[in-house]
Specification:
The chain is 31% helix and 24% strand. The protein contains 10 helices and 19 strands. The strands form 5 sheets. Strands 9, 12, 15, 16, 17, 18 and 19 form a 7-stranded mixed beta sheet that branches. Strands 1-8-6-3 form a 4-stranded antiparallel beta sheet, with no helix packed on it. Strand 13 and strand 14 form a beta hairpin. The longest helix is centred in the middle third of the chain and has 18 residues.
Amino acid sequence: MVELFVPVLGESVSEATIAKWYKKEGEAVKLDELLVELETDKVTLEVNATSAGVIGKINFAEGDTVQRGDLLTIINEGVTIQASAPAKGPEVKTPVAAAPALRGAVMSPAASKIAAENNLSSNQINASGKDGRITKGDVLSAMENKTSEVVISDRSEERVKMSRLRKKIAERLKASQNTAAILTTFNEVDMSNILALRNNYKDAFEKKHGVKLGFMSFFLKASIAALKEIPAVNAEIDGEDIVYKNYCDIGVAVGTEQGLVVPVLRNAEKMSFAEIEKSIANFGKKAREGKLTMSDLTGGTFSVSNGGVYGSLLSTPIINPPQSGILGMHKTQERPVAINGKVEIRPMMYLALSYDHRIVDGKEAVTFLVRIKESIENPERLLFDL
């Protein structure tokens, strides 16, 4: 008999929720087979079988709260399940269920078949055929009416317990609004040069580095340059002190089925374009598979969120505390703009910087966003550190 306990959940995490059991009591399990998923307020943990055997009593149901060291279940080693062959007997034919409902109805063969398949009785169908005969069209009309009635009358509700991750997201975002003096400033950026640069080099970049060249690396590079010039956006308030960071740990918001998570690129100021793109791609894969770790999600001095991938044209992102700023990217959309006294169609993106006004002044915030705009519209500034 092998006991299966709740594993270490991570730093400062004391409890989790049973998200899903993949096995039931009495079912056979193989070594290392996935048994149960545990959801903390940061990540989802998979617990695998440490031995082959048969699952014994399961002590916690889905939705229950567990703590480190709790006994989840036991695995009975050496026990096998033998399936018994069904006893042979005389063959019994099951009558068609809809036939009694249609007895006595004057229907065409095609109409009778469709009505039987859809559980319709003759008194539910308005006959339009000769001598009160029910046609195929009458049955199809009755089916449409039945479907419409179901849709119109469907006012059911479903109550689902909020996941631990969703609860934590709600708590942190509300705490951010309650604590920080959040203000948002906006600007727009012409994406023409970045698009041209990417189109010229994306194939060679992917061939050499094995990863696609996206826009996020340009915006992270531009953010890093702006953070160096405006260090208050990269700082945080700790009691009565302001802590200025001489490094850039940048969180990149990633959407998952469970909610938004923000994995952190450590020392992003030392990363190349290829290293940034590879790290973001790796985080996205781990997020989709539910394999982000606690270390992936903790810390961060600044964040970037790209609502444009979902079609957002403009938004006001919320700061991830204790950080003091977050950059919001949006959808690139062709718009008429004035260029040297003429109206031209350009691919434009709105940018938003939400910042904590307790530590970042309005002038600093506006300058920060202008620097990002300048870097994106003139990417050579990033190459020459201008």
